[in-house]
Amino acid sequence: MSISDLFKPLELLHGPAMRSRFMLAPLTNQQSEFDGTASEFDLDWIAQLSQGGYGLIQTCATTVEAGGIAFARQLGIHSDEHLPGLTKMAATIREGGGLSAVQLHHAGHRANPLLGGVPAPASSRTLPGIKALRTEEVERIRDSFIAAAKRAELAGFNGVAVHGAFGWILSEFMSPHLNDRTDKYGGSIENRARLTIEVIEGIRRECGPDFQIGWRLSVERYGLQLEELREITADILNRELIDYLDLALWDSAQIVREGAFQGQSMLGIFTELPRRRVRVGTAGKIMSAQRVGQLMDEGCDFVLIGRAGILQRDFPLQVEKNHEYDSPKLPVTAGYLRKGGLSERFINHMRGWPSFVVPGSI
Ligand SMILES: Cc1cc2nc3c(=O)[nH]c(=O)nc-3n(C[C@H](O)[C@H](O)[C@H](O)COP(=O)(O)O)c2cc1C
Asked: Which letter does DSSP use for residue 163 in this model?
């Protein structure tokens, strides 16, 4: 696809179209207030992004329950107290011309007790001395995802992105390694996928006809089985349960390392599935105009920009201006990030990411 075609609208199943093929990936940045309300730094970051040409901007992972917290200063959507800040964020994105989604997150067994988190494992074997969630507790968490989506709608977001990646609760339940339940949420892959499907179906039922649902999926590690996740994805696409699938790859060029698809492109085994009207995109080291164009040719409808978007807030506009655009080389100095408009809290968060900030730089 030519670079100029990246800026043609992309229709979604529900609600308005994306104005471009660029989606901002969810990026935890630990700059909210301790109670999960949006801080001036959250609003500033969103204001910068809103002018960047993105078709859709996702928030960082946002807690659907106070007990589901993983990170200090994580954004929250589990209380009406969060609404004023979230409403400002949604309005800012809308005024910039992009669509918006809150990434709905519950940390599952990795909820952090030091932050008020209540570890919520799928299995009694995962954490010493902590029993698996009872069925009613799983249902409560499902309902918290749905209530959070309604709150996102009330705040004026176009939709939500359901976090099913990186071993957090929905991905934990998918994993035969982390889920040995014998109730309706464990056992067969259909049962292990039930929590995800009930969350998605509940949001569709409770929110309005224009409300958009994305689903972020990671397909490896955490004991996840690629073959069965591909089957579940095929079913979700075939039933058009979501507006977009976001493949949470760390490298969009990744090759499958083992199993039935060994040697094939990880992306390819999902882009080749019939997707009906659902849009499919990937994240993973997308740092240049050329790479975005290639991924469209490999079957993506859109791309998710992560680190390149932290380095350059208006990555899509840079690509539009310069069809040879390439991100600055990593690592960068803290000073570079500060000059670009990142807060000290965000910069400190980035110091924890390998090879991103020059160690000791000020
Ligand atoms: C600073 C940082 C924070 C992240 N936070 C989240 C998050 O809140 N939720 C999530 O699903 N993924 C998160 N990720 C993963 C990114 O969304 C993305 O999938 C990954 O970084 C690969 O894309 P990239 O190579 O363009 O950075 C984060 C990544 C980074 C670098």
From this structure: E
Domain boundaries defined on the chain = 3-328, 331-362
CA of 283 to the centre of ligand 1 (A): 8
The model's pLDDT over 24-82, given as tens digits with 9 standing for 90+, comes to: 999 999 999 999 999 999 999 999 999 999 999 999 999 999 999 999 999 999 999 99
The full length of the chain comes to 362
**Interval between CA 113 and ligand 1 midpoint (Å):** 23
Instruction: Identify whether the C-beta of residue 219 lies closer than 8 Å to the C-beta of residue 247.
Output: yes
Q: Kindly give the distance from the C-alpha atom of residue 304 to the centroid of ligand 1, in angstroms, as a whole number.
A: 9
Nearest C-alpha to atom 29 of ligand 1 is from which residue?
27
Class for the domain spanning 3-328: alpha beta
Q: Which residue has the tokens 């934990």?
A: 172
Nearest CA-CA partner of 355 in 272, 269, 266, 285 = 285
Asked whether the CA dihedral 333, 335, 337, 339 is positive or negative, the reply is: negative
Q: Among 355, 280, 346, 270, which Cα is nearest to 310's?
A: 346
Surface-to-core class of residue 12, CB atoms within 10 Å of its CB (0-12 exposed, 13-18 middle, 19+ buried): buried
Output the pTM of the full model.
0.98
Q: Which atom of ligand 1 is nearest to the CA of 304?
A: 26
What does DSSP assign to residue 33? -
Half-sphere exposure of 73 (CA within 13 A, CB side): 14
The 10s digit of each residue's pLDDT in 225-250 is: 999 999 999 999 999 999 999 999 99
Contact 346, 338 (CB under 8 A): no
1 pLDDT higher than 90: no
**CA-nearest residue, atom 28 of ligand 1:** 27
- The model's pLDDT over 293-349, given as tens digits with 9 standing for 90+, comes to 999 999 999 999 999 999 999 999 999 999 999 999 999 999 999 999 999 999 999
- pLDDT (tens digit, 9 = 90+) per residue, 145-174? 999 999 999 999 999 999 999 999 999 999
